[in-house]
Structures are given as C-alpha cells and as structure tokens.
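JOB MANIFEST
job_type = single_chain_structure
chain_count = 1
residues = 619
[input]
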Amino acid sequence: MFEIKARDGLARIGILHTKHGKINTPALLPVINPHFMPIHPTEMLAMGIEAIITNSYIIYNDEELKKKALEKGLHSLLNFNKPIMTDSGSFQMYMYGIEIDAFEIINFQREIKADIGTILDIFSEYKEYEKVKEEVEETIKRAKKSMEYKGDMLLACTVQGGVYKDLRRYCAKELAKLRADVYPIGGVVPLMENQRYAEIAEIIISSKKELPPSKPIHLFGAGHPIIFPMAVALGCDLFDSASYIKYAKDDRLIFPDKTLKLDEIDELPCCCPVCSKYSIDELKEMDEEERIKNIAFHNLWQMVVEIKRIKQAIRFGNLWELVEQRATAHPSLQEAMEIISKEKRWLEKWENISKKKAFIYVNKYSMHRPIVYRLQKRIMERYEPFFDKSVVFAEIEKPYSKNEWMKELKANCIIESYFGPIPLELDEIYPVAQSLFPLNIEMRGRYDKFYKNFNIVDIREVERGSKDYDIRKIKSVANYQFGKGAGEALFKGKIKIVKSKVTGKIRNVYCDGKHIVSMRASDGFFTLKIEGGKRLHEHFSPPKLRVIVENDAIPFIKQGKNVFAKFVVNACGQLRPYDEVLIVDENDELIAVGQCIMNKKEMLDFERGIAVKTREVVK
C-alpha cells in the first residue's frame, strides 16, 4: 500500500509498505548481482539505502543459489533485512534470447519471499509498430495471469510499448485495471544508453496519464542521476541502477550532470567519502579490484545524494528549478523540456496552489511551469474589472500596490509583468509577489485576448479619489482562488478588514461581525473560516469546491478529524493540492472546511492517506 506524505505537483514523498518494512519514495534500488557484490547490501544500509533489487532469474538459474533462496529465503541469501524487489529476467530474455516460463518465475519470486515481484513482460524497443503491438498484448495477457500467482507478494506489472506513445497509453490503461501494487515503466535502458531523454519523457508522460495515481511508478533501468529530477517531476517514485558498478568497471565516475572517465579527471569535484579520502592520483594507482569498488561507492553516493536533493526540493516546492538546472547539462534534456512544456494543462491538475519558496527564474523553461500556466489562465478567466477604464503599466517594483497613488485611480490598473498582465489587486498572490527574475530577460508579450474587453486609456484621462481598493482586492483574490462570483458571495454585508500593525497588509476579513477568511502572509491567498464556507456553499452549486464524504465518516469529521481518501465519495474536479475546500456529506450538507492534500482523481483512487486536513467544523 502507498501513501503520500509531501508533494510538489506529480512529485511526491511517499511510503510504500512492504512485508520487510517501508520504502520512502523517491527511492533508489541498487541492483544486486548475487555473483558479484563489490558493495554488499549491508554496506548500502549505512548509505541510507532502504531497498534493493535483484534478478530472480539469475538466482533461479544457479542451483546452489536457488536451493539457498528456497530454503532460507531471499533476505537470508543476500543478508539484507529490508525490502527486496526482484526482476523476472525480461531483460536477459531480450538480450540473450533466454526462454523463461512466465508463471514459473512468478511462483519462484513468491516462494523465495520477495517483497515485490515483477511479471515477465516482453521488452520492446526499436521494432515495427505491429510487432510491438503484439508484444504489448502478450505483456498484458501475462500480467493478468500473473495476478493469480502473486499471493501476498506485491506485484509489479511493467508498462511496455516501445517508443510508440499510443501503445504505451494502451498498455498502461489495460494494466491499470488490474490494480497491481507497483507499475514499472520498462524498455528505456537502450534510450538511456543513447541519451535519448526526450523519448524517455514522452514514454513516462504517456504511461503516467493512464496509471492509477495511488500506485508507485518505477522507471526501470534509469540508472543515471541526470534523469532523476525530470522523472520524479513527471511522477516516477522508484529507480533501479546497476550503472554504479557497470561504470566503475569501465573507470567511469558518475556526477549529477555528467559522467567522466578517470583519466579525464585532474581534480575530484566531489566530497563523498571516497573522494574525501583519496586523491585522483591515488585512485588511478589502485589495483583494479580496489579501484572498481571505490568508484562504485562514489557512483552510488552520487545517486543517493541526488535523491536526497530531490526530496528536499519536493518539500520546499522548488523541484522544477532543479529540473531546469539539470536540463542545461545535455541537449537531449532540453529537448525533453520542450516535450514537457506542451503538457502544462495536464501537469497543472496536480500542481500545488502555492509553494514554500519563491518562484526563481532559471531559464526559458521556467515560464512553462504549470503554476505559471494556472496564473495566466485564472487571470484570463476569473478577473472581473471594476471600472470602465483601464491603465497599463510597465513592470514596476514589487509589491505593485506599495504605490499608494495607483490604488486611488478610478481605473483598472494592469501591470505588464514577467508573467504577463497582472491586475493590481492580485499583486500579492503566489507567484506574483514571491518571484525573482533577472533584469535583462525579455518581457512577456501583451495578451491581446486578455485586453480585448478592456478600454485602455492614457493615465491622464483617469480621475482619482477611489477609496475602495481593499474591497476590490479581497474580491479579486476570492474570484481567483475560488472561482468567479466568490468575491461577491463572501463579502456582502458590513465588511471589516483587519490589517497587520507591522506590515499594514490584510490579515482577516469579517462580514456582519463574523470571521469569513484570513489572508496568508506567505502566499496572499485566503484561509477559509467556517462562516466563509457557509457563504460559498450557499452560492456555488455542487460539486463546486466540495469534497463529498461517506456518511460513516461524518461523526469523526465533526470531532475535527481529517478526511481520509478511502472515505471520499466524490469531489470537485477543479480542486488542486492545498486548495481550500468545503467538506459535505452525501446530501450536500456542509460539515466542515479544510485544505485538500490531493486532487479529485487522487482522492477517489487512494486507499490510504489524508485527502483533506479539516480546519473548522459546523457547530
């Protein structure tokens, strides 16, 4: 079973539960060859490795190993007491034409007590479409049958389809119906070896769109850290790697953004335990066996550190920055970013409503982040002008509203920002205020579609004396955050706005003496209070802004307990992670307000984990 603990869009820090313990994702599973272990699994524990993967066919094909594994179990054989995943031999069958019985190998994985077993899929690569289609059908057929043999072992059903996006989606869609425990994406090793990262991005996207969001995704054979950030950002949770030892045998050292031959290096640009202990000359002078082991340690450390770097980025909400930084390392990664930039509409559905860290511009791909797409789309669709006249200003120092004279203009003030046109009233929302750009980049072009309904005039034609800027601001933020009409629904009656004595910024809004919303200093959005929830509930028809829960869960929610995904019946399709929501029962009676952790698709698919953090309940 899998649950999310933190997220940044499709990237998630999660927990995969197995018989031998938890795997905290994203996770790297080093490949262990029982015949050759220069780094023993027990040594990997000290590096923070929580799970490993080994090939069940290699064990099955060696009588001595097979006997030990069947008698004492896989964990005893490898002297590793944490989760072990087994591959089935698909790659060996592909490479060497070995014949393997698809269901006998599943039985064997179960009998040696693997935590996660893998079906014997058909490895498809550079083949004609019809041939790959036949192989996909066989993979699906084997997966369906393999589910009958898994027992209590977690089973991984691998998505195949070569480089054909439609076959990848078809395979993923069919396998998704099986509700397997893990979904590897296979057949990418040759693409990795040839640095065809754009095609890997296409394969991940095509597969991920059809796979259940509650299941961890394993990118088989993606053993170089250069691909990790992009793959995690697209929803991959697990990686395996034999490259740490393969590269070491060839005197190649892995780094986050490159690979270097030992004889190409004069200075070691690394502080791992190996590079801190030995000089480059000492490494070169070692005997072969010692050198291979030390380079393998270095390579594995690089992968472990990159996974940690990614986890930190997920928690801070700046994973896309890391992805964009890595994209500069290789032209094919930039080609991959071009592919990803065309998927903004899909990616936005999973994107957090705001982030802990400011939006930092890295390169041109920064402007294709899902959160930028959302900002532009919502302003286009949800901003409601207050005046007949509008004035457009060039980019000015943030926050724009510190220019007090602008608030007094009897006109809609639009700032041509790096993000595009931003109404003055929305200058403090994320990522408008919380962003950093270099001064010398080109401004975004004017959005004619946005301006077509505005009467743009010269500032000299505009009168002054407007006194309602704060009212305009709270209504604009409400419309942006909750939907068009939310501002009027929330803020009617006698309005009282409470501001911070230190910053002068809006902190709380009361209507007719009732606390409606609080405004967060961190991102400029509202935290919904129960009285505000009542107003939105009355104004918007279901399922707008709602998470609908089973009646059995209502007594617990009324006690202030969180909403767990397994109790969600339905939800608004426009909800995004960390949105403010209305919690209702199956009769649309308002029970509470809170903050959702998942979008609709995730809430309806996950069997474990919090869907909504409850904040206030109806008394």
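[summary]
The longest strand covers residues 11-18.
Residues 472-617 form a domain with the Archaeosine Trna-guanine Transglycosylase; Chain: A, domain 4 fold (CATH 2.30.130.10).
exit_status = 0
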